Amino acid sequence: MATRILPQEIIRVKRDHGELSNDQIEQFIAGVTDNSVTEGQIAAMTMAIFLNGMVREEFVSLTQAMAHSGNTLNWDSLADRGPVLDKHSTGGVGDNVSLMLAPIVAACGGFVPMISGRGLGHTGGTLDKLDAIPGYNSTPSLDVLRRVVGSTGCAIIGQTDDLAPADRRIYATRDVTATVESIPLIVASILAKKLSAGLSGLVLDVKTGSGAFAASFEMAMDLATNLVDVARSCGLQASALITDMSQPLARAAGNGLEVRNAVKFLRGDHRDPRLEEVTLALAAEMLVLGGLCDSAAEGLQLATKKLEDGTALEIFAKMTAELGGPTDFTNKLDQYLPTANVRREVTANAQGHVRQMATRELGLAVVAMGGGRRAATDRLDYGVGIDHLPALGDILVVGDRLCTLYAASDEDADAAEALIHSAIEIGKMAEVPKTILSRVDGSAS
After folding, report:
1. 115-126 residues labelled b (16+ CB within 10 A) or e (exposed)
2. What pLDDT, in 10s, does the model give residues 353-392?
3. How many helices, marked H, and strands, marked E, lie in the chain?
4. In the chain, what are the domains?
5. Is the pTM here over 0.85, yes or no?
6. Active-site positions?
């Protein structure tokens, strides 16, 4: 049996730029799991990793230790029915892709047990969005998860006490200690949850731009490559798309507003073009990875068909109902989704093209209104947010609607309006970046 090492001595190694052994990492994560490692020690370790980084062997050891800190799901019962697939986004503003993607892939024959997280920093969390749906149980038992995935094809839930419990504690600490933007911690957190979910394939959506953790393309490529290579080192087939987050993906930001946007997307009422491009590209990638289609073009065609014929909407509605939400939710959004006390049209104060956005600041405006957390224990206001956001390249004149604010008070709306005006630059036309920038499949690794 390995000699027990004090947590502070393990922290000291990383603080002093050393490389942690597999045993040191396993012991620290075991302490996180059984609560013998304190919140302060978690914060110290995450800051040491943030500042000093990790080598590939440490990445893999940390990921595996966190993945095996609890139970791992087994999907043998679905082996002859279809592949078990999932996707993860590194986060951004207006990124509600998961809400549409899971039912689209399920409609195409995949099974998607999507273990999602809550908001980190300026980014919205998928679970926070789903919690805007009355009755929706985002943390069901594993038996319920298995039943819903088997009967509907997908279930979007959060980590339970059984799955990667060490990650849950570390995740919450990172959010409030300015250690979110660390590639080793991001890789381990994402992949620990996905490995514990028992997947056969995983697609990563790695964001880059002013609203992403990876602000530069080079950092996004580094993150994507590490995610794919570490996943494959852990026995999980994976690929990644690097996508643009220099502007919000959907034209809505805020939990309830993004759910409304997603349902309208599935119903065909309205689809933001960039959101549609990313959603369908990720679906195609998942279908190829799962062996359901031979090429991305074939996957795109099948995913589009299942979106257009309403099958994906039916699956989303069934998933929502089976996880405790209203049975008629997709038909009665106004009845069920929360509404804010204040609704305000924000108008353009300049004329020209929307040429640049400080997307992170837009996300922080939602957080400031109560739509995100400053501390891990904060309660969210699911009705606040920003809707009808412009896209880069849009032409506006003075007095045109810039966006619509939903806030709890006039004071909150005033503060958010000021942030929005400073975050959206209107002037001469600038180059609009492509939505999908690159693909990483790890085939050369």
Report:
1. bbbbbbbbbbbb
2. 999 999 999 999 999 998 887 666 678 899 999 999 999 9
3. 17, 12
4. 7-53 (1.20.970.10), 76-333+436-440 (3.40.1030.10), 339-427 (3.90.1170.30)
5. yes
6. 86-89, 126, 174, 189, 193-194
